[in-house]
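During the no-cost extension, the postdoctoral fellow (Dr. R.K.) reprocessed legacy sequence entries with the updated structure-token encoder. One reprocessed record is reproduced below for audit purposes.
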Amino acid sequence: MVKENKRNRLILPSLLIATLSTYPPSIVAAVLLTEISNDLNIPIGIGGQIRTTASIVAFLGSIAMTFISSRYNYKRLLTVGLLVIAASAVASSLSPSFSVLLLATVLTGAGMAIVVPMTTTLIAEYFSEAEQGRAISLLGMGGGFGFLLGGTIVGQIAAVGGWRLAYIGFAGTLGALGLIFTYFALPDTENKGSRDIASGIREIISNRSAVGCLLSNLFASAAIQGLYFWCFSFIKETFQIGTVQTGYIFTGTAVMFITGSYLTAPVLSKLGSRFTTILGLLGTSVCTIAYNIAPTLAIATAAILAGNLLDAFRYNAHNTLSLQQAKAKGSMMSLHNAASNLGYTIGGALGVILLVTDWQTLGTILTIMSVLAAVIIQITVHQSGSGNAPD
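Re-encoded structure tokens follow.
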């Protein structure tokens, strides 16, 4: 591994910029969906499939990366992923039709499938195990700032040159910066790839602790959609508030996630990644139920904000925990990312039950999934991942 003697001050900023490069395409699509749909003459419901397409491709790409990461150098894979994201931003900005934009979105999903697991995998290459939790928490903070500032930046760029300029000016620029920093600032790693592509997969699937960590991440990623996505529609419908006020609450969730990520490092050092993940899951379970039964907007908002703070603990600790589960870290983190994307898709798709039932039923289902994720970690996952039974 590349340790203290090879580390320099640009390693963490480079990985942070690489991580940030995966968010802009989603932010542009979310903030400017109406403008994109109107310009390309399609219904908003169809335009929204940009996000669905990216998630599905990211899931499938992460499965492929489980094998690819065993064969090729991590830094080189990260470089390729950033190149793909930058290219997808350019292609998106030049799309003459929705069909072409969807094809560009396929590139976005593919780039995310490469970049996300490789940034966390490289944490293990550049940092000792004792430092990995802090490094991952700082990446989580960066992601929170990306969402906190991204909406404003995208809006300002779009005001000048529309959604096409937002793609190239925001998503394209960050992708290019990530590519430059990765290529020139990151030291090469000792991992040169392996001819035995299947060895890493065998190691993971034969390890009960690693499988439990992945399965719990799947349920956790589905459950958190209650606090990341559905809660905003819930408060608008239940308490009849406007888009501007909802936007303020959304900004508040980003602030709380950043704060939680900042606080994760000292919590991890005291409690460990396993116990911190469990506490985060149980905390978000309580918050999900709380906002769904809250009698006032103030209480619902407090629960949503607290839930995002606690999920920052869970998210960063869960990443750290997965990183500790196997020697084939590239394969492990690729599967972790695949589980996340599949969970996000399931959590979003569960919204169809609102056609036949109410918000409380959806909240209950999501809460059960979060508790189940905590139970799986408790009974299967090791702190170090070195065995097949809990501590």
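Residues 4-195 form a domain with the Growth Hormone; Chain: A; fold (CATH 1.20.1250.20). DSSP finds 15 helices and no strands in the chain. The remaining legacy entries will be reprocessed before the final report is submitted.
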